[in-house]
Amino acid sequence: MSKVFTKKNILLFVVIAAIYALLFTLDGMGFFNRQTRALLVPICINIILAVSLNLIVGFLGELTLGHAGFMSVGAYTGCMFTIYADLPMAVEFPLAMLIGGVVAAVFGVIIGIPALRLRGDYLAIVTLAFGEIIRSILNNLSLVGGSGGLNGIPKYSNYAIAYVVMIVTIVVIANLVKSRHGRAICSIRDNVIASESMGIPVVYYKLLAFVVAAFFAGVAGVLYGHNLGILKPSTFDFNKSIEILVMVVMGGMGSIPGSIIAAFLITVLPELLRGLADYRMLIYAVVLIVMMLLNNNARFNEFKTHIFAKKARRQGAGLTEGGE
Amino acid sequence: MEFLSQLINGLSLGSIYALIALGYTMVYGICKMLNFAHGDVIMVGAYMLSIAMATLHFPPFLSILVSMVVCATLGVCIEKIAYKPLRNASPLAVLITAIGVSYFLQSSALLLFGSTQRRVESAINVPNLQIGAFSISGNSLITLGVTVVLMVIITWFINNTMTGKAILAVSEDKGAAQLMGINVNRTISVTFLIGSALAAVAGVLFISAYGYVGPYTGSMPGIKAFVAAVLGGIGSVPGAMLGGILLGIIESLSKAYISTQLSDAIVFGVLIVVLLVRPNGLLGKKRTEKV
Amino acid sequence: MALLEVTNLGISFGGLRAVDDFSVSIEKGALYGLIGPNGAGKTTVFYMLTGVYQPTVGTFALDGENLTGKTPLEISHKGIARTFQNIRLFNKMTVLDNVKIGLHNHVKYNVLDGIMRLPAYFRDEQKLNEDAKRLLEVFDLYGEKDYLASNLPYGKQRKLEIARALATAPKLLLLDEPAAGMNPNETAELMDTIRFVRDEFDMTILLIEHDMKLVSGICEEITVLNFGQVLAQGKPAEVLSDPKVIVAYLGE
Q1: Mean pLDDT lowest for which of A7-11, A89-93, B228-232, C191-195?
Q2: Which one of A153, A198, A251, C47 has the fewest beta carbons within 10 angstroms of its own beta carbon?
Q3: Model-level pTM?
Q4: B272: which chain A residues are within 8 Å (Cβ-Cβ)?
């Protein structure tokens, strides 16, 4: 087990704890105003959403436009559970997250099944359709408050819980990606025909990626509901899915640290630059287009390789560290 | 009687979807990409119509023409700036770019025109057709008529002109078409030009039926028209017509008899079922994937 | 008993009979060539043997087990591995990871072991790294193990593809036009590699090729296909001097 306590892992743990402690102390000293403090939980939630979507878009290489749908399913089931279950918070809230995650994962399977037959544009439009169907149904379901929203959700979410859940999500997905299962998922992205002929059960791994991503989106939804105390179907529309996609694309598809940084920036910047609020969507759009054009521009890639040559070599060597 | 009038509503709505779907189908056929921004070109067309008529006081016919020219130019520019550099990129990159363009158009409209929907005078005013006690909306008939005429023209154009044949050739095999001396870039531009001009017409018809335009006017009809294109079989011109009309009828009938709010869900449900059962659509050719 | 026994295999697309009555039997350890002009149906035979196309008639069996009608995945698990005419590597993955994908089914640690980094993960990953290292060293690729597969030169990509296929520990290795796009020097080197693979791994190899020189240079036995029909079968020298074969290749 000594491999768990490598220098790198201990350092990582110290950094994680230090960031937490730093933010906690700053908060305790009254350093944050109300608006800033209100951002802490949403930052964690968005990081969970971006990292989990990255598993599908960046590592499996399929585009889904229904991540907000998974989030809403998790949010509604988890919040219904805390509303109706009469348990102490310490039991109720983790259970709610688990239930929300599992139900979202079930939807992940349902949406993952077309993913087995469809690719690219068709899959994107089907996931979009699923998201819209879920939203329409929630809008018309009086049991969960319909379009008026689900009220009276206990406000259990706080910075500490959200931070822990966020770290768990990142660790789980990062470890998954670096295991043989994650390699199999990446091989499907790179060449599905070769992957199958190498004996990779493509069906299983596509579903696995969808299920894991949906689970964490569901958990993020539960955190979200218990942060605001109210859920509205309109929150989980197509725009929310796009916002998460923008985080993934901006951070770099297939890069977990990238997703984390992008999710942080996209949550914080609109608050810091209030004057730009109107331009937010326009900026998202430009980010999407420019990122794609640059990534596919030979001259830019050459430039990038030149700049990052040293770093890339180091990272390349790091990839095998786990097992040696 | 109620049923019949719902059916005619459906036909008229469906023919608008068909016009938009035609743009999707042509672009998909030639570039193998889902031009997500196509729906938003409709919105631009509608705004142009409203500006030309209300602000510049152009006569309806000229306004429609202005709207078509603007949209056609826009379509060609979008292709040149955003899609052309990505011809050899992964489908994922192209799709994400197309979503970006769609958002770009929507948010630009939001900044320019504000979020409130503006009322648009109908460019088409035809008296209703009275058959005994039963009345059919004149605009519905015009919509249906315009669509049928445009479909016939497009089909003729593709099959009988050099440019049309070039479109078919490039759709089949870009490389081979280029070797045959076809200017691929020009052909793709022409496709975007036609598709976008049709979207402008669809925008005009859509606005004449609904009377309002806002930054998001185009997105829903756009997505539904894509559903229609898939339903009919993407890449097929008659398929777009059939898919659009079927979808319009399904939507009208489910609004009338099931639930207004669930009608979108039903439309999307149809899409999922079609894709799972018959991924090539009703009139689509079955393609065996090359290994 | 032969390792691969193909009996009267045939497939039609619509009305077109792409391959008709194709029979061949390949002994364990053989280096067998399948040649023929363009469009003769060679690649179609490969697609049937790997489960991509389902034959209309006939059967094929590996080691006595009938594999007709199995999916590509099942066939891969039964021990047939292949390379591709147009190289299909996992381009955005490292050379090492490409081989580790081939080794995927050799270790069994599950998703939870991977996520929680349980001891099974470290044990199995170490085994994978060692096995991959051995294979890469054989092909002289270990020095490039951390390169992205797409950054390798063409000849090395071909080698990596063979290494990756061998990583699945197949009973039969199918090579689809391995010399495509190679110059004579590279082809000569490739011939050495193929011979080496057969000897070192005690592998049975079936290869498709147009390149007559390569085929007659290394194959012990060949089958010539033309218009989906078997034209000749036997030792390279006899087959290639067969007037029917000469006509098929060069015309009357």
Answers
A1: A7-11
A2: C47
A3: 0.88
A4: 114, 126, 129-130
